[in-house]
Each structure stands twice: as C-alpha cells, then as structure tokens.
Amino acid sequence: MKTEKQKMLSGELYNASDCELTKERTNARLLLKELNDSREDELENRQSILKKLIPNAGDNLSVQPPFYCDYGSNIKTGENVFFNFNCVVLDVMPVEIGDRTLFGPNVQIYTATHPLHYKERSSGLESAKPITIGEDVWIGGSVVICPGVSIGDRTVIGAGSVVTKDIPSDVFAGGNPCRVIREINQD
C-alpha cells in the first residue's frame, strides 16, 4: 500500500493532511521563516538555510527573500539560478530548473492542483503535475506557471503571463494564456 507521500510524488490523488507530509511542510516553513527574517548582510546564513531547504540546488542558487515553497525538497535547480523577491514554488511534485535561469519578482510556480468535480474536491484530496524549466530561461515578473508545464531552453516569458501549456525553446512568449509571440534568433 502506498503512503500519501508516494501517491503525491506519483501524481495520484493524495491526502495533504497526512502526518508525514504535514511534518515536512512544517519543517520547510520553519526554514522559510529563518530565511525570510534574515538580514541582507547575512549571506552565509542564507546559503546555509537554502542548502537545508532546497538540498537539490546547484551551485550559486540566489534567492531574494521573501521566498515561499511547500517542501523545498522537490525543487531541483541547476547552477546560477536566481529568484527575485516574493516568489512562490508549490513543489508538491518535482520542479526542475536548468542552469542560469532567472525569475523576476512575484513569480508563482504551481505543481499542485485539485479535482474538477466538486464531490472529489470536497473530499480534501488533491494531486499535482511536475514542472520543468530549461536552461538560460528568463521568467518575467508576476508570471504564473501552471501544473504540468514545460518551458524550453533559452526562452523568455513576458511579465504577467499565465503559462498553461508547454512553451518551446528559443521563443519569446507572453499573455494570458501564454502563447509564443516570436522566435528568438540566438546567433
């Protein structure tokens, strides 16, 4: 029989109130409180907290507090990833981010979702879909990235966009819903 965490990580409906999951979220929130309350001149302390919160981060992860996430352990970053102020990552399932990717302020990354049918939704069960963001991507301020989306390498997502579907590599995309506006010639 699968645990609720195993169900969560496999994309099945699961009970988020499970004791193990609640404990992991509480631990993440305690680390987030330390991070978000840290002073600008406490860079070593911030890096220490980030290593505990996001153990799968590549070298030189930079986060401008405040920052929020569900677990932290389901976030995997490449090297030199930057999150500007007030980003939220609901990492119920894996969020994979490539090297040198930049996030503007107020970016929201949501793997979590809920059943569409009200009876199933009112049961308290939820599910999630993973998100993949490539290398050298720039996500503009206040972008919302919805569950199950992939964004290709070297792509730029315009500020305020709502990304509901996969976006290919080497494009500028924007809007609500986000769509490809033009290709970017990388030569």
From TrEMBL:
Residues 5-59 form the Maltose/galactoside acetyltransferase domain. CDD domains: LbH_MAT_GAT. The keyword Kinase does not apply. InterPro entries: Hexapep, Hexapep_transf_CS, LacA-like, Mac_dom, Trimer_LpxA-like_sf. SUPFAM superfamilies: Trimeric LpxA-like enzymes. It is an enzyme of class 2 (transferase). One of its GO terms (molecular function) is galactoside O-acetyltransferase activity. The keyword Cell membrane does not apply. Its EC number is 2.3.1.-. Keywords: Acyltransferase, Repeat, Transferase. Belongs to the transferase hexapeptide repeat family. This is Acetyltransferase. It comes from Plebeiibacterium marinum.
